[in-house]
Amino acid sequence: MNRILQNYLSRLLQHAGFAPILNEANMFLQYKQTQICLRILAAVFGGYALTSGILATLALCLPWPKVDTLFFLALLPAFISLAALLWSFAAPSAQRAWRDILIATLFCSLPALAAVLSR
Which residues form the domain of 88? Predict the structure, then answer.
């Protein structure tokens, strides 16, 4: 029913001479939907990569016994993923959210890579 009403309204607006306005509105809507999808993907996949990088770095670099490190690291993923989720929707654009999360992932993962290569 909603689709039929939308088609009827779009035909009515086209006959009335409002076709350019209608096309701009559809393009804006598609742009917003794309931005939301990109932000969701940044939150899910970027948050996962950031969490993995931070946990790997801490697991390899903390000088604690393995049991203590394991218990400490079991608490962190929820907070890191939440921070990535909040940042992906607080960033001014989806591209900036992706860029910032990937840069943070890179800088958080480099010490883990260095620790693995030094062993």
Answer: 2-118
Predicted confidence (pLDDT) per residue in 28-54, tens digit: 557 788 899 999 999 999 999 999 999
Confidence of residue 65 (pLDDT cuts 50, 70, 90): very high
Burial of 54 (0-12, 13-18, 19+ CB in 10 A): buried
Q: How far is CA 42 from CA 33, 37, 80, in A?
A: 14, 9, 13
How far apart are alpha carbons 66 and 110 in whole angstroms? 21
Task: Count structural domains, the chain.
Answer: 1
Distance between CA atoms of 51 and 45, rounded to whole angstroms? 10
Q: Retrieve residue 26's tokens.
A: 């559809």
Residue by residue, what is the 3-state secondary structure of 2-68?
Answer: HHHHHHHHHHHHHHCCCHHHHHHHHHHHHHHHHHHHHHHHHHHHHHHHHHHHHHHHHHHHCCCCHHH
